Amino acid sequence: MEKTIEKTRFERFLDSDVWHSFKSSPVAIISSLVTLIMILAALFAPYIAPHDPFDLVSIDIMDSNLPPAWQEFGEARFLLGTDDQGRDILSTIMYGARISLFVGFASVIFSMVVGITLGLISGYAGGRVDAFIMRVADIQLSFPAILIALLIDGVARGIVPKELHEELSIYVLIFAIGISGWVQYARTVRGSTLVERNKEYVQAARVIGIRPGTILRRHILPNVMGPVMVIATIHLAIAIITEATLSFLGVGVPPTTPSLGTLIRIGNEYLFSGEWWITIFPGITLVILVLAVNLLGDWLRDALNPKLR
């Protein structure tokens, strides 16, 4: 009798329809490469950035508002020019993308945890619990996410002592963006849970006495993660834009922290005086990052849904 060799998870992934769909989609390949390059540039910013925008010793106010290196009065050591504080634009973009991506990923993870938990409970318990959670979700959907984030940020600033505002601002921003985005996860997971809870494998688990929490974690959760990953990918782009919007409005990260939204807000004040590079280059970076993540999310949605192929 021939001995069968079990394939590893990686080998099964290479044989899957998702990998085949990825290889045959130039848009997915390009968008994933762009996203990966930006993430790596942000992660390794302390090592590859030409300058450190947080090092006050190396920053000279006399270098402020210098144009890009290819323009008149530009300097080669500042490829994309400098901002009003003399910080290198290229370096601040790398560090700014680092902060924007951190806030985006952290808020998405927070939204996923809250939304998946409430969605599982709502779909599995049903009855009044389901009705209450869904009515709360319906109420939140009637307000724009940016308005909810502004409200939460304002309340947090009123509660937190002023001397801790800058120290806790990023965490408040993550909570504000995260709590405004849990509804989509909850509604999607609830719908999938309503379908899964009536299937035979769940009923068999109930019969043998497995606890509801274990059934949700081991049996139902793995089967509802496909749509959740699609939502998370698209939500990452929304979270990055929300962070940039709040920072642009002056209620996000502190002005001394060079996030993409902060750089765009600072550059907007100098746009009409001719220093266009301070806001244009961070703006282009934000657009490219969000576009790449959105295209990746669109591909993932099509790859995980056979009806859309």
Automatic annotation (TrEMBL):
SUPFAM superfamilies xref list: MetI-like
Main location: membrane
Domain ABC transmembrane type-1: 97-297
Family, similarity comment: Belongs to the binding-protein-dependent transport system permease family.
UniProt-recorded name of the protein: ABC transporter permease
Subcellular location(s) of the protein: Cell membrane
Membrane topology: Multi-pass membrane protein
A Pfam family hit: OppC_N
InterPro entries: BP-dependent_transpt_permease (IPR050366), MetI-like (IPR000515), MetI-like_sf (IPR035906), OppC_N (IPR025966)
PROSITE patterns hit by this protein: ABC_TM1 (PS50928)
UniProt keyword list: Cell membrane, Membrane, Transmembrane, Transmembrane helix, Transport
Transmembrane segments: 27-49, 99-124, 136-156, 168-185, 220-241, 276-300
